[in-house]
Input
Amino acid sequence: MAERSTNLIAEFNKNGFARGWYMAVKTCFRDALDIRLTNRIIGGQTQQIWTQGNEFYFKTGDTLHNSRQIYSAGSKFETEGQLITVQVSSALPANGGTNYPGQVNFTIYLQYSMIMSRSCTQAEFVKLLKNGHCISSDGDIINLQALPGR
Output
């Protein structure tokens, strides 16, 4: 098994969101991003530090929004821009040991209206959440900034 990296794909701010990500990814998705506390020996002492792996696993039902406000405003939420929601409909985990990239089937909503359903690898799904775009399993470019109706 390869040693886990200390270079994390996401750093979380004091409010619990990944800094600089297109979608509002909260700390509750650390496991899905394969960010875990790992024992390391530093200066002769065992310490737990955050480490990064490559076995991403977003799961059925995982729902993410592009607005951080929606997580605190509840039903009173009203968008100043346009709310984008990405919801996982089914998924298989990535497995670094077998080099299986995993799969995520997901639906994209704009202002609560379904825009499209697509699939991609787990790593491409992470790119979608981080950068707002990825390549689907059938080779299409998915760009959340250029959705139809936006």
